Amino acid sequence: MGFNLCGTAVYLCIIPIPRRGQLFTWRGRSVAVCVGGPADTLFCDVSMTGEPGKYDPSFNGPIHKRSCTDIICCILFMAAIAGYMIVGILAWLYGDPRHVLYPRNSTGMFCGIGLNKGKPSVFYFDLLKCATATNVMAAALNGLQCPTTQVCVDQCPGDFWILSPGAYLPTAKAKDFFQQQYCVPSFNLSTTDLVCSLVGFPVFSFASFLCLPAFLTVFLFLPPHTPSGLLIAMLLSLIFLLLLRFMAPVLVWLLIVGVLGVVAYGIWHCYWEYDNYKNSSTTISNLGFTTNFSAYLQVKETWLAFLIILCILEAILLLVLLFLRTRILIAIALIQESSKAVGHMMSTLLYPLVTFALLIVCIAYWGITALYLATSGAPIYKVVALNSSTNSCLAINGTETCDPLSFNSSAYMSCPSAQCIFIKYNTEGLFQQNLFNLQIYNVLAFLWCVNFVIALGQCTLAGAFASYYWAFSKPSDIPTFPLSQAFIRSLRYHVGSLAFGALILTIVQFIRIVLEYLDHKFRAAQNPCARFIMCCLKCCFWCLEKFIKFINRNAYIMIAIYGKNFCVSAKNAFSLLMRNILRVVVLDKVTDLLLLFGKLLVVGGVGVLAFFFFSGRIQLPGNAFNSQTLNYYWVPIITVIVGAYLIAHGFFSVYNMCVDTLFLCFLEDLERNDGTVEKPYYMSKNLMKILNKKNKVPKGGK
Question: Mean pLDDT over residues 319-336, rounded?
Fold first, then answer.
């Protein structure tokens, strides 16, 4: 059979080719059929994509007899974890835990202990100043103080009050209008004419020690029926995933037709606008450049350009749909098969809770360690003028140290706003001098642990779903507890490989963090050329991070199936995908479109239901909930919407991993097997029907 191969990197054949995976020699180079099927004509260089997989009679699913992989990286990861624990212990020993457990007043003294024992809460005279003003001097000295008086109180006030006119009478006594416990301790109401506040707000105690105004508690205390909305989101996500087994073809084609319809409507609208401005004398050349972009919509050339662009886009979409319809059918069949796999292994939908719990542990450990490192060393207090704009306070430059316990404000009569405030912690000593390096290590170890947890989840789910695909008779051949077996295999044999992939991703993410820090630090001093280079670097590393995540994801699938090390698995996965690049693109886009529609359906449905419920348009029987008690009903609505999105994302991430795993198994099945009695296909009958393939029945069999 003759072939007419054209080009250098990609070769096209004019006449139909034999089965997929067959090798040819052309100009001294091995060329393989990259995409199967009787109508496929795509060839590729084996040196770039690797040789197709060969039949292995002993392979029937994820290999159980495997050995540990990437041991060196495993040891390195364990050493990093041990070092991370040592850093946490040192931070705990040198840090001041009281900064986590107790609040402080304006003088830096802790509430609830020492002289303020029995006063566990801190009360801000004007909390809004904390958000609207910052002390310039304190900020320049590496400190951040709220420019309002803070006192330790035994109980947060719960009444709204305002100073009555009688308080301004000459005979008025301060003790008759104010409460001593809410005033600065140095003020004695029985002997002073000073006042400590003019207006008081009803406040609530939050986190056992912080007094917040009541109007802010709307963000902290949600209605009791808010968790019901999250439960509904969970049920909708589960129902949607299970129904994809039956509705996937209808939904996919509806979405495709919907996209084509939207573009077609855009073409019609652009033509209608162009026809309206066809006789207009205004052109783009007459209009010139203007910041009023709505003016360009009054020009016919704008709508003509939009019309041409949309026509080209519609033509491309129609051609893609025409020539890739078979691959779209394969993608739909894989989505249906994924729904079956999830239905047979419902425990996989609960695994995101394990990942979420481990991520919470990592984040909590990182935050506590960073806080304790930041509080290492003795606190340094300095005399600072909270109102530095006053001429009488110019002499206070923030260089004089002080003791908050013995500070006497009467020594600074010319500057009434002078106070002894906390600035920073002492940086002398070997441990304190290396705090910056320890914080860098804290960030690196945190990123590595987070990426490892995500990698562990992906490898575990991949092993479970691969067990489903390679079960010849489903569901009888599916192993018992496939998720637990995959989790144990990943931890027992492949900690090093997972840590290797996580380390590569961590390095790229850390470089991105450094670039963001440098960009923020030198943004004002950068010239246009430097800003352009910085923007290009950030864009390149963003793309590199996305590519590494793609490689890692597929490498973890191959690790879960074959038990090879990270580099070999990544190479095999990448070569396998490159030999089926068209199928990869089609499946990825179809799956993304379908899951996006599912997320919008779940989040939109729960959001609309929450709006009607919390706004009072839907009433529950009885007096279980009264919407009139809500001053801001949009707060629980937003909370429910965000929670619904996170829940839907967790469910759909499992489904997306299932699709990717079954897709790689499907490609391996095509390369390794041919449907004979010795090498039967493991794919579903629907997939074999789409590809015009079938398993041969042995003689005498049914």
Answer: 81
Q: CA-based angle 22:28:31, to the nearest 5?
A: 25
pLDDT category at 83 given cuts 50, 70, 90 is: very high
- The sign one gets for the Cα dihedral 183, 186, 189, 193 is negative
**How many residues are given for the chain?**
702
| Tens digit of each residue's pLDDT (9 = 90 or more) over 351-386 | 888 988 999 999 999 988 888 887 776 777 788 776
Q: Is 151 helix (H, G, I), strand (E, B) or coil?
A: strand
pLDDT reported for residue 25: 46
% pLDDT > 90, the chain: 17
- Please give the Cα distance from 676 to 697 (Å, whole number): 8
Cα separations in angstroms, 527 against 87, 511, 517, 530, 534? 40, 22, 17, 5, 11
603: tokens are 């989040």
Angstrom distances, CA of residue 433 to CA of 12, 88, 436, 446: 65, 17, 8, 21
Cα–Cα distance for residue pair 542/233, rounded to 1 Å: 32
On whether the CB atoms of residues 331 and 590 are closer than 8 A, the answer is yes
Q: What is the pLDDT of residues 572-581, one digit of tens each?
A: 999 988 888 8
* Contact criterion met (CB below 8 Å) for 336 and 687: no
Comparison of pLDDT for 460 and 603, the residue scoring more: 460
Contacts of 61-66 with C-beta under 8 Å, sequence gap 24+, read 61/466, 61/467, 61/469, 61/470, 61/471, 61/479, 61/561, 62/463, 62/466, 62/467, 62/470, 62/486, 62/489, 62/560, 62/561, 62/562, 62/563, 63/561, 63/562, 63/563, 64/489, 66/489, 66/493, 66/563
